[in-house]
Amino acid sequence: MKHSFSLILFFLLILAGCSGQNKEKKVNEHSSEGKLQIGLVFDVGGRGDKSFNDSAYNGLEIAKAKHGINFIYIEPQGEGADREAALRQMAVDPDIGLIIGVGLLFSEDITKIAAEFPDKKFVCIDYICQPKVVIPPNLQGVVFEEKKGSFLAGALAALVTKTNTVGFIGGMESSVIKKFESGFVEGVHSINPGVRVISGYIGMTGSAFADPAKGRELATGQYGRGADIIYEAAGASGLGVIEAARERKTLVICTDRDQEQAAPGFVLTSMTKAVDRAVLKTVETVLNGSFKGGDVSVFGLADRYTDYVYNEKNASLIGTKNHQQLEDIRKKIVAGEIVVDETAIVQ
After folding, report:
1. Which CATH superfamily is domain 2-144+275-299 in?
2. In the predicted model, is pLDDT for residue 185 greater than 70?
3. Residue pair 270/152 in contact by the 8 Å Cβ criterion
4. Where are the domains of the chain?
5. Helical residues (DSSP H) of 225-266, grouped into ranges
6. Are 236 and 254 in contact (CB under 8 A)?
7. What is the spatial distance between Cα 231 and Cα 94, in angstroms, rounded to a whole number?
8. pLDDT per position as a tens digit, 68-103
9. Average pLDDT, the chain
10. 34, 12, 2: which is closest to 94 by C-alpha?
C-alpha cells in the first residue's frame, strides 16, 4: 500500500488527536491479529526501477504471501532528500515494528533514528558503517559481496569481448558503486590484462540513480569508443544503458536483478544481489525472535545471494566453455584461492 507524505502526516495528526484509550485499542487489535507490520522506504528511483528497489519490494510480497505480514511503503521525493522524514514517520506509527531503508544513502539517517526509537527494529540495505559510530542494537545492516560478483562480471566480459574494449557505468560516484567498478576491472584483467576498460559515472548525488537519459548518453559514447560490452551499476539510470545496448545491437551486463526482459538478446548476464531473499530472511528473523541488530550481515557468493545469471535465455551468449570457466572462478573465490578484497576500491 502506497502512502504519500501528506496522507501519512494527516493520519498522524488524527492519531495524535485521539484519546489514549483509542490508541491503546488500535495497538491491541494489531496484537490480536498477530501480524507484523513493516514500513519500507524506497530511495531514488522508487518502485518500478526494475532493479534494487523492486527487489526489496518483491521480498516483502513474498513475506506477505508466506507469513501473512503487512507492509506499507513510501516513495522518494525528488532526489530523496526527505528520507529522514520518511523514516521518522514510519517510526512514530505504533503499529509498525520493522522499518527498512533501501540503499546506502539511508545509512546515516537510519542510524540516528534507530537510536531515537529503541523499541523499533530497523534494517538498512547496503549499509555503510560510519567511522567512530556504533551501530544501534536495534539496527541491522545488510550488505552483499558486490565486488566479488563484479569480478565475475568482469571475467565474463573479458572472455566474451571481441573488441578488447569494455565499459563500466556507475550511478552515484560513491564507495559502494566504486566496489562494482573495482571488481569489474580486476575481473577483466584477471583474464586479459590487455583489455581496455572505459569508466563513467552518472553523477555525484542520489539523483544519479534515476537518470536513464544520462545513462543512455554515456553508454552511447562508450559503445562509440569501441566498447562491445558495458557493465552498468546505476539503478534506474541503467535502463538507459540497456536501451543504448539494444539500439546499438551490442551487449550489456546488468545489476541487482535479472533484466534480460528489458532487451532480449542483448543482456549478456546480470550480476544479481538477492535483495528479495535477504529481505525475506531478515523478516523471518524478526518473526522467530532471532533478529540481531548492532551488526552487519553479509549475503555473499557462497549461498548465491550474490551471483550472476546463467540460463536458457543467455546460454548462447555466454557459451558453455565460458560458463564452466566462470564457475571455476566463482568456486575459487569462495574457497579463498582467488582473493577479491571487498575493502579495496579504485581511486
Report:
1. Response regulator (3.40.50.2300)
2. yes
3. no
4. 2-144+275-299, 146-273+310-335
5. 238-248
6. no
7. 43
8. 999 999 987 766 568 899 999 999 999 999 999 998
9. 88
10. 12
| Chain-centre distance for alpha carbon 121 | 20
Question: Which three cell numbers, joined as nine digits, stand for 306?
Answer: 550474490
What cell does 250 get? Answer: 551490442
Cβ contacts of residue 246 below 8 Å, gap of 6+? 263, 266
Q: Evaluate whether 2-144+275-299 and 146-273+310-335 have a shared fold.
A: yes
Name the helix (H) or strand (E) containing 86. Answer: helix 83-91
Stated as kind and residue range, the H or E segment containing 346 is none
Backbone angles phi, psi at 300, to 5 degrees: -125, -160
177 has which bridge partners?
Answer: none
The CATH fold assigned to 146-273+310-335 is Rossmann fold (3.40.50)
The residue whose grid cell reads 571487498 is: 342
User: 192-225 in b/e burial notation, b at 16+ Cβ within 10 A?
Assistant: eeebebbbbbbbebbbbbbbbebbbebbbebbee
Q: Note the pLDDT tens digit of each residue in 9-39.
A: 433 433 344 333 332 222 222 333 568 999 9
- Cell numbers found for residue 49: 526501477
Rounded distance, CA 102 to CA 90, Å?
14
The rounded Cα 4 to chain-centroid distance in angstroms is: 23
CA distance between the termini of the chain: 42
Q: Using CA atoms, how far apart are residues 144 and 288, in angstroms rounded to an integer?
A: 23
Q: How confident is residue 8, by pLDDT bands cut at 50, 70 and 90? A: very low
3-state secondary structure of 213: helix
What is the Cα 153 distance to its own chain's centre?
17
Instruction: Quote the CA–CA distance of 185 and 150 in Å, as a whole number.
Output: 8
User: What secondary structure letter does DSSP report for 130?
Assistant: P
